[in-house]
Design a protein that fits this description.
The protein is an all-beta fold. Helices cover 1% and strands 41% of the residues.
């Protein structure tokens, strides 16, 4: 094609057909050609060779676009995004090349294929849509389009090089209810593995969005003045040498990341761990996530974190530590969320979740890692979150070395764990919430035989907690400026057993070895009515009384029996002198059990606070 401009016209949408290039047919467009569209677009079953030059670009645009070839047919209407449909490459298309082209004002989903308030499946919705094939785009400009710039679906080998994406930020009425990052996407990567490099993304809503296991290689690109630069959802990209400046979020967003393969994560820009209400990065059993030195992961919500059922290898260096922190933390990775000094007002312990290692996790290693401002545990039954430790290791073993754990709600809890902690500093754990039952601690050992060597505990409410049944190896530890250095509940003489809370006199409330010392003697179990008078004994109850002078918040406290029937308290402020009854299956506080809970021939009730510390027990 030469001798432009050309007009592609569909008689005001009545024909409702794209101009098609048949299979095994090649359309060659010469440099300098201008093609203007009235509503329709192109559907390529064959091949397009559109190779312009730096001085003579090939133009695809709306017929109202006066910047190229002036007014067409005397039309004085201004162009707008979505004025025409775009160019669609089908699975039959092959070997298409777009070099030195400009594509503008395309991406319509509503013309000419709209039916009522839905879209026809043959509408394009992108300046370029590539499905089950691949193309090469180089030295080009994709600008001012609606909904999507380039849309890759099952495209394994497409290349985008030295191309500018700008001004792609308009959206139609059917997109206005989407989350803002979905309203207009410059490059939408769906189940595709393109190479995107040496390109510029400027003044767009979302520059690159990937989904459904995509594996793009993204390198040497610039992201400037966008709302969002890169958004990753269940995909496995590779990043290198990308630059981000003055974007609303200067980072790479990670959402709903549950890996199904071994994966290496790293980039020059911070990662933004985004999801609510559940953890957004999940490592299932049998898979390994390796994090490159220098990687920064900033979490957005107080429930965003990592759940490790497999293996986490975070092996930083002294010069390139791996950082886990909050999006409000400007010390690492700069002002990621572009809120200026406002971050200072929002940065506090517990503004993001935790690294949670479950029982199936093996061989995890954290070296030269920094964890800051986390420490929240998300619970789904009933749904709530509470204060916790930024590192929570339950029935697993990990190694932590040369790291800094600081400014969290709590530092590290090891439960039934023989983990190793070497040359690591735990500092500034000073969180306080009245009657929460939580003591902000550097390391809490529960039933754990951990090895802790050459580590420092500085400026914590409590440096180290050791439960009665823990047998840790502790060497070369330093404690400075903690309110309390160590709370060691082990027997003073080796081999002397700690008193079992079940070995109490019948019908008495005793708690000489309760963990929750601050509440011990204040909130007590005062009675158990264990022989109900009605069928299935719904009228059984346990009565609990607040003997203190302070109001106690019972929310998330638990009441259990020897058979481990668990009742979790809802929000309730137990006033001084007030008592409550927890029934088997009646009243406001109820197990909701259709069968009796309390054994007539003897049982023990255990009352624990939200931290899981034993407050009182009562046997009969």
């Amino acid at each position: 094609m030469n001798n432009s401009p050309y007009l592609v016209y569909d008689n005001n949408g009545e024909n409702k057909e794209l101009l098609e290039i048949a299979e095994n047919v090649t359309l060659t467009i010469e440099s300098g050609v201008i093609i203007k569209f009235v509503n329709p677009g192109l559907k390529i079953h064959g091949t397009i060779k559109a190779e312009g030059t730096k001085e003579q670009k090939i133009i695809f645009t709306d017929y109202n676009d006066k910047e190229y070839a002036g007014e067409f047919c005397g039309n004085s209407v201004d162009s707008k995004a979505g004025a025409w449909s775009g160019i669609y490459f089908t699975e039959k298309s092959k070997n298409s090349i777009l070099d030195n082209v400009i594509i503008r004002y395309a991406g319509s989903r509503t013309r000419p294929f709209r039916t009522g308030s839905s879209y026809s499946p043959i509408s394009i919705g992108a300046a370029l849509k590539v499905e089950d094939t691949s193309i090469i785009i180089t030295n080009s400009t994709i600008e001012n389009n609606l909904f999507k710039g380039v849309w890759l679906i099952n495209s394994s080998d497409s290349v985008i090089k030295n191309t500018v994406f700008k001004g792609n930020k308009e959206y139609d009425s059917l997109s206005q209810w989407n989350d803002d990052y979905l309203r207009n996407i410059s490059v939408y990567v769906d189940s595709s593995n393109p190479n995107i490099f040496d390109s510029v993304f400027q003044d767009n809503i979302t520059s690159i969005y990937m989904i459904n296991g995509s594996q793009p290689i993204i390198k040497n690109n610039q992201f400037l003045d966008n709302l969002y630069s890169i958004w990753v959802k269940n995909s496995y990209p590779e990043f290198s040498n990308n630059q981000m400046r003055n974007n609303n979020w200067n980072g790479i967003v990670l959402q709903k990341i549950k890996i199904d393969r071994d994966y290496i994560l790293g980039a020059d820009s911070p990662f933004i761990n985004y999801d609510y209400p559940f953890n957004s990065i999940i490592i299932p059993q049998g898979y390994t996530l390796t994090i490159k030195p220098g990687t920064i992961i900033k979490s957005v919500y107080n429930t965003s974190g990592l759940e490790i059922a497999g293996t986490l290898i975070a092996d930083g260096t002294a010069n390139k530590p791996i950082i886990f922190t909050s999006i409000y933390d400007d010390k690492y990775g700069g002002d990621t969320n572009k809120d200026g000094d406002e971050s200072i007002n929002n940065l506090k312990p517990g503004v993001w979740g935790q690294l949670k290692f479950t029982s199936s996790s093996t061989d995890s290693y954290l070296n030269h890692v920094v964890l800051r401002f986390g420490g929240v545990k998300w619970m789904q039954a009933p749904i709530h979150f509470k204060e916790d430790y930024v590192l929570n290791v339950d029935m697993a073993e990990i190694t932590i070395a040369n790291s800094v754990i600081e400014n969290n709600t709590g530092g590290c809890q090891l439960e039934n764990s023989n983990s190793q902690i070497i040359s690591t500093t735990f500092k500034n754990h000073q969180y306080s919430k009245p009657f929460s039952g939580f003591t902000s601690t550097g390391i809490k050992l529960v039933s754990s035989n951990a090895f802790i060597d050459s580590s420092t505990f500085l400026n914590n409410n409590l440096g180290l907690y050791i439960s009665p049944d823990s047998v840790p190896t502790l060497t070369n530890l330093v404690f400075e400026n903690n309110i309390d250095d160590v709370e060691d509940l082990r027997p003073e003489e080796e081999g002397e057993p700690a008193e079992n809370p079940e070995d109490n006199q019948a019908g008495q409330s005793t708690c000489e070895n309760c963990d929750g010392e601050e509440e011990n003697g204040f909130v007590e179990i005062i009675d158990i009515f264990y022989d109900g008078e009605e069928e299935n004994e719904p009228d059984e109850y346990v009565e609990i009384k607040n003997n203190s002078d302070e109001t106690v918040d019972l929310e998330y406290w638990t009441l259990t029996d020897e058979a481990e029937h668990i009742y979790t308290f809802p929000f309730h402020n137990l006033q001084p002198g007030e008592s409550v009854r927890v029934y088997t299956n009646m009243g406001d506080f109820s197990y909701g059990s259709n069968t009796a809970i309390w054994n007539n021939d003897g049982d023990t009730a255990y009352l624990k606070n939200r931290e899981g510390d034993l407050i009182d027990n009562y046997s009969y």
